[in-house]
From TrEMBL:
Domain Dyp-type peroxidase N-terminal: start-end pairs: 32-133
Transmembrane segments: none
Superkingdom field: Bacteria
Gene Ontology molecular function: any one: peroxidase activity
InterPro entries hit by this protein: Dimeric_a/b-barrel, Dyp_perox_C, Dyp_perox_N, Dyp_peroxidase
Pfam family, one: Dyp_perox_N
NCBIfam families linked: Dyp_perox_fam
Identification of the protein by name: Peroxidase
Domain Dyp-type peroxidase C-terminal: 138-297
Co-factor(s): heme b
């Protein structure tokens, strides 16, 4: 039975850290070995620091997948959608790897990142090191609860993990879209609560949706759910980030369906219905975006053992 990376469906933490890396030329064989060791490292340190709720993931970008794992490609794995919209633009990234570490202890994250860094630095260039934190009772810096419509309980696994019936080889894996959303907090805070709730589509205090007959079709809530067929088919792990000059959210969307994010994203950009787009985007910009695949532990370990290579030369690709 396939074993998923435990960070996919883990509950929220107090702190998060993210390494965005580009692989150095010709390092694929060595990286296959080292990436398989990172989940083992996380498991070992999670047991050592049992109260820290340590978890994490290793993800491979859509464009680097065929270099690292040339034998099989997940169905529908594509780059972050480069949809053009008159309302919004996205700056895309071409990073090869994403390593996420989350914990309730910041010192534990530091220990883990140091070990990961020492392991992989001969083989990669670290492009970005990002950090995030839990804000109040799970809110974004808009002041609103983050994704109150996120799947809960067993539904999280159903939404995020590829089922064996869909793909035996990639069971327990997940499609991941990552982006950094920068909030125009100055202009957002000039709105009163009623105006903010109209944009979000749900109440600021408790996250409950505004009554259906008054909710705006261009609200964040309506646009996120418009393509979901009644049940939200993304599992989001969003956490705020902030410096003195810039603040916003690091957003990770996991799904068992390769097209779920793209369909939602196109609707949010106003590409599916004229003049209807996510009005929250009027107060945001995205300066970093990439699509990844989070392979199961079973797949990572099998690839590291060379089980998929038909010849010795395959391993050196």
């Amino acid at each position: 039975m396939a074993r998923e990376q435990l960070g996919i469906c883990a509950e929220a933490n107090l702190h998060g850290s993210y390494l965005l890396c580009n692989a150095l030329d010709g390092q694929e064989a060595m990286l296959r070995q080292k990436l398989a060791r990172i989940p083992q490292m996380l498991q070992r340190l999670s047991e050592h620091f049992s109260e820290a709720m340590l978890t994490g993931i290793v993800a491979v970008s859509s464009h680097y997948w065929d270099h690292l794992y040339p034998w099989h490609r997940p169905d529908g794995l594509q780059a972050f959608p480069e949809s053009q919209s008159e309302y919004f633009s996205v700056q895309h990234s071409t990073v090869d790897l994403l390593i996420q570490v989350r914990s309730d202890r910041l010192d534990v994250i530091h220990i883990v990142l140091q070990q990961i860094y020492q392991l992989i630095i001969p083989n990669v260039e670290v492009v970005e090191h990002l950090s995030s934190f839990r804000y109040l009772d799970g809110r974004q810096l808009t002041g609103f609860l983050d994704v109150p419509f996120n799947p809960r309980g067993l539904r999280r696994r159903q939404v995020a993990l590829v089922e064996d019936a869909r793909s035996t080889r990639f069971a327990g894996s997940s499609y991941l879209h990552f982006h950094r959303l920068v909030l125009d907090q100055k202009h957002w805070l000039q709105l009163n609560t009623t105006q903010q709730e109209e944009i979000m589509g749900y109440r600021k205090i408790d996250g409950k949706a505004i009554a259906g007959d008054t909710i705006d079709e261009s609200s964040h809530y309506a646009c996120c759910l418009a393509t979901q067929g009644g049940e939200y088919s993304l599992l989001q792990q969003n956490m705020p980030f902030a410096t003195l000059k810039q603040q916003g959210s690091l957003q990770l969307s996991f799904s068992a369906d390769s097209q779920a994010f793209t369909k939602q994203w196109q609707h949010r950009l106003g590409l599916t219905q004229p003049r209807i787009y996510d009005s929250l985007l009027d107060f945001c910009r995205i300066d970093l975006a990439a699509a990844f695949f989070v392979p199961s532990l079973s797949y990572i370990e099998a690839a590291a053992r060379g089980e998929f290579a038909s010849t010795t030369s395959d391993l050196l690709k």
